[in-house]
Amino acid sequence: MASITFREVEGSSLKYWLLFGGIGLFVLFGFLSYLYMHHHGHVVTGMDNQIVWGLPHVFAVFLIVAASGALNVASIASVFNKPMYKPLAPLSAILALALMLGGLLVLVLDLGRSDRLIVAMTHFNFTSMFTWNVFLYSGFFALVGIYLWTMLDRNVKAYSKAAGTAAFIWRLILTTGTGSLFGFLIARELYGTAMLAPMFIIMSFAYGLAIYLMVLAAAYAWTGRPLGDAVMLRLKSLLAVFVAAVLYFVVVYHLTNLYFAKMGSVESFILRDGGIITTLFWVGQIVIGCVIPLVILLTGLGKQRTWIMIACFLVVLGGIAQMYVTIIGAQAYPLDMFPGMTMKSSFYDGVVHGYAPTMPELFLGLGGVAIALLVTTFAVKVLRLLPANLDDATVAKLEH
Amino acid sequence: MAGKIKRLLALGAVVLTTAALAWAGSDDQPKAGGAPKPVITKAAKGEQCVEPNDFMRRNHMKVLLHHRDETVLEGIRTKKYSLKECINCHASEKTGSVAASKDDFCVSCHSYAAVKIDCFDCHSTKPQGSMAMHPLNAETAHYAHKLAAQADRKISAEDMAGIAQ
Amino acid sequence: MSDMKPMPETSPNSPERRRFISAATVAAGVTLVPGVMLIEVAHGRPEDQPASSAVRWGMLVDATKCAAGCDECVSACSTENGWTPVAESKHPKQAPQWIRKLELQDPLTQMETNLPMMCQHCAEPPCVDVCPTGASFKRADGIVLVNRHTCIGCRYCMMACPYKARSLVHEPLNDTQKPDVPRGIGCVEACTFCVQKVDRGDGTTACVEACTAAGHNALVFGDMNDPESEISRRLRELPTKQVRADLNLNLGVRYHGI
Question: Is C2 contained in some domain?
Fold first, then answer.
């Protein structure tokens, strides 16, 4: 098998520092938003006692789900032994770590008492899915970290497959855990189902790969390194499969819900009467997030790099819309405490809850995305993560 | 090899600093610096503390935290180490509080020692039954019509009898 | 730092033992002071004793007596526990509400029902299951509380509660709390069954007192484990329901007339 040279990105150009500074600015905005929210309390957000998880959770859960998906390329390389993916693996691992870090920071900084993080690390309640997730997330950092090490250091290369397999299994459990965060909430009609866990896994494949593709293409374009069509086309076909699978799961999920009479009203809320939620579902999640990308990826358009990038971007947008619908939509729909009765109270019982996110929430969420990008940008500069050359000839040699 | 480790370390450092940065934002306390010596405001009530002064100075946090868990989790309501009782005795005559001004009992020592406590985010700094003594602010205005009736009333047997007739 | 003790043993005592204990306490109460004082004596547990699982505090809401437009229970709760009534809050959407009046109407028959809704003090509380730090807990005597010393404000419990009984404190309270009822920014809170009053031996809650004082008598509070308590007697006689009984949470609040 031909060997591949990995090389750091030249990180002293003005272009690099502009990128770094631009992303850094968003990290700064995110941090200022946090300080503002922490000082005044959640009263400065659009969240209230009805919509208790808002935009920061949308971003956080999206990033965490995408993180485990970003590891996919590495898993395919080491677990399923596909040599073509080997050179792509280190970037996949670092991106997974970076996205996870971004997501967790947003999650933690949105706590009502973020200053008590230490309590969350020392007091555990093992019936809580949240507690298990704390362990799943820490384990993810450790395992992916080790895996990355086995890829970067020749001395421990022999363990790469074992580490990769462990990380792969772990990430499946992790996404199941993230999905179950919602799946275990019996109170909310839309959540109490085991479907959420597998659905989150398949979504993580799509979102993670879309982000990976964008980062890969950007890194190669901006550093002037050759990136052949072989890699791009292989990955975009994979993305098409994942996006189709997401669409399939979403359809099955809503069809099974419609089958149960008691879910009828909440389903018609999401699918028909939910205003912004309904729009986000059909336009954001289905059309922008699934249909258009599928059309692009499966037709001739998918041969052009620009269109692939557009498709990836749309998948990410659709993913955020999907999280919004899943997280906010389920809270917006009133709890049905007395089936068959209309309800009225000072606590907004029986009415659909509105939610208007404020600037600090948006920037906190974007701050998480920015952290992920900043870490990645920095990592490719200081570590040998990217192959110097990925043109078709080099890649073709790997296959033999 | 050494270079690689260095780079790995550098990456680790970045990740940690970012986390630490976020973390640091959560406590914005000023450091001790040249703070003046603490003033121990004389307790308004009582001849002596619940334990010898020396012991209290060193161990008040321990007894408080222990009692706190006993009370909240188990419902043990002994008075001795109760925070409410500390406040009843130690609230200053001037501010009527243990933590309203920089010389108040629970503040002056702590700012000298650069200790930050969050207890008074939640716990009232004023003695029990003192609502009436203090000017009502916007948040408590709704008590106005209840104040007269409220004055630390316990239900007596007569009251109960009246209610149950 | 704060070495939290494990939660007090909440496994139910054997029924025989429980019956024996309550019979014994009641006997003591009767011999000391006959009549109304009974409630106080039976439950005025010494201050150094932990709450006991021999007791299960509960409430009966008789919706047929709950008057439309009356909110005595709500304002009594706000006064006792120091939360600002919604009408006076600067941020009504974000203001905590420990108890609220619900107006129900059957769209077909037009029949109206009024009732107060608050923490139902489940025996199997979903909020306790989901709390990552164990701050949500059920005390031995069945009162579901938030230990605000370990609450990190993640709001998972609010997502899990089928009754929307919990609120987050969205803004600083600036020392307006009542000395008996600490509350604070960033933590989740809910009805405590007036734990400060119960532990003091009042044997009742602010909302029940207010409802009784207003002459509606729609609320009864007491020990559901004690067969002689007023609440147990009334629960034996009246048909009652649990809200969202399908969830099988074994609620501490039972409703008649819904």
Answer: no
Residues B81 and B83: their CA atoms lie apart, in Å, by 6
CB contact under 8 A, A152 and B4: yes
- The tally of domains found in chain C comes to 1
- Separation between Cα atoms, residue A203 and residue A197, nearest integer Å: 10
> Which tokens hold the place of C60?
């009966």
Supply the CATH number for residue C218's domain.
Answer: 3.30.70.20
In a domain, C27, yes or no: yes
Q: Are A290 and A298 in contact (CB under 8 A)?
A: no
- Residue A132 tokens, joined: 């298990």
3-state percent breakdown (helix, strand, coil) of chain A, nearest 5? 75, 0, 20
Return the pLDDT at A66: 96
DSSP A61-121: HHHHHHHHHHTHHHHHHHTS--GGGGGGHHHHHHHHHHHHHHHHHHHHHTSTTGGGHHHHH
Q: CA of B93 to nearest chain C CA: how many angstroms apart?
A: 17
Q: Give me the tens of pLDDT residue by residue for chain B, a chain 165 residues long.
A: 444 444 544 444 444 444 444 444 344 444 344 445 667 777 777 778 999 999 999 999 999 999 999 999 999 999 999 999 999 999 988 889 999 888 899 998 898 889 999 999 999 999 987 543 333 333 333 333 333 333 333 333 343 333 332
Which amino acid would we find at residue B27?
D
Verdict on whether the full-model pTM lies above 0.90: no
Q: Are strands C136-138 and A386-387 parallel, antiparallel or unpaired?
A: unpaired
Chain C, nearest residue to B71 by Cα: C50
Measured distance CA(B40)–CA(B109) in Å, rounded: 7
Considering only CB atoms, which chain B residues are within 8 Å of C134? Answer: none
Q: How many residues does chain A have?
A: 400
User: Can you give the residue ranges of every domain in chain B?
Assistant: 39-164
Q: Which of A99-103, C44-48, C144-148 has the lowest mean pLDDT?
A: C44-48
Question: What ipTM score was computed for the predicted complex, to two decimals?
Answer: 0.91
**Residues A139 and C139 sit within 8 Å (Cβ to Cβ):** no
Residue of C nearest to A341 (CA): C106
C-alpha C188, offset from chain centre: 16
Shortest Cα distance, chain A CAs vs residue B70, angstroms:
17
Task: Count chain A–chain C contacts defined by CB atoms under 8 A.
Answer: 173
Give chain B positions within 8 Å (CB) of C202. 154-155
Q: Do C184 and B122 touch (CB under 8 A)?
A: yes
| Structure tokens, C244 | 């969202």
Calculate Rg over the CA atoms of chain A.
21
pLDDT, position B93: 86
The yes-or-no verdict on residue C163 having pLDDT over 50 is: yes
C-beta atoms of A128 and C244 within 8 A: no
CA count, 13 A, side-chain hemisphere, C187: 23
Provide the chain A residues 311-370 that lie in CB contact (below 8 A) with chain C: 331, 335, 337-338, 340-349
Mutate to test the interface with A, among B1, B18, B29 (most CBs of A within 10 A): B18
Backbone φ, ψ for residue C62 (5° rounding): -95, 95
Q: Which residue of B has its CA nearest to A364?
A: B22
Contact present, A37 and B25 (Cβ < 8 Å): no
Please give the sequence-ordered ranges of beta strands (E in DSSP) within C31-75, or none if there are none: 57-62
Can you give the residue range of the structural domain that contains C169?
Answer: 15-47+54-256
Question: CA-to-CA distance for C34 and A345, rounded, in angstroms?
Answer: 42
User: Which one of B23, B73, B116, B133 makes the best mutation probe of the C interface by having the most chain C beta carbons within 10 Å?
Assistant: B73
- The first and second tokens of residue A316, run together, are 């990410």
DSSP lists the bridge partners of residue C100 as C117
Q: Does A41 touch chain B (CB under 8 A)?
A: no
Gyration radius from chain C CA atoms: 18
Domain assignment present for C100: yes
Ordered domains of chain A (ranges, CATH): 6-398 (1.20.1630.10)
Length of chain B as a residue count: 165
